[in-house]
Amino acid sequence: NNTLKHSKANLVTVLINYINGGNTFVLNVKDDGIGFNVSEKQNKPSSTGGVGLKSMINRAKLIGAKFVIGSKIGHGTSITITLPLQQEINI
Fold first, then answer.
1. What would the mean pLDDT of 31-56 be, rounded to a whole number?
2. What are the residues whose beta carbons fall under 8 Å from the beta carbon of 74, sequence distance 6 or more?
3. Total-model pTM
4. Cβ atoms within 10 A of the Cβ of 36, count?
5. Distance between CA atoms of 17 and 54, rounded to whole angstroms?
6. Minimal CB count within 10 Å: which of 21, 26, 72, 80?
């Protein structure tokens, strides 16, 4: 939703991987949009600044996932969520 609302991207790539040996689920979303300053958004005191970003970080924490975001103005954004699984799943 954030990508559609804010990025002005022409291309969005979504990769979903299950790493069987490590029993890990990895989700990566990458776009070629306008990008942004991550630390500025995370630390913005405004009620509208970075609410979606903070929500994603909090949701990842709730399920025990690692949340990594990278973005640079003019170079798009990449978000990776890595979730270790408790039990093996069948794909």
1. 80
2. 34, 35
3. 0.80
4. 20
5. 24
6. 21
